[in-house]
Amino acid sequence: xxxxxxxxxxxxxxxxxxxxxxxxxxxxxxxxxxxxxxxxxxxxxxxxxxxxxxxxxxxxxxxxxxxxxxxxxxxxxxxxx
Length: 81
Prior knowledge:
22% of the residues lie in helices and 31% in strands. The chain has two helices and three strands, in the order βββαα.
């Protein structure tokens, strides 16, 4: 996943994951703190990814967020780009 920065306002989800066992590629921050917001790793012979979704139009339609989701789905599906 690429190192990019973008922002939009939405509800801030706080999640926990075993960061030593996955690749955290996205973090979210707000006045309430910071949290992993996207991660991916291999699981057996497959791939698994997680991204904390936006639910307001500003986030769901944000081109940068769409690009991150597309890259994650492509990686999880093991599709050539």
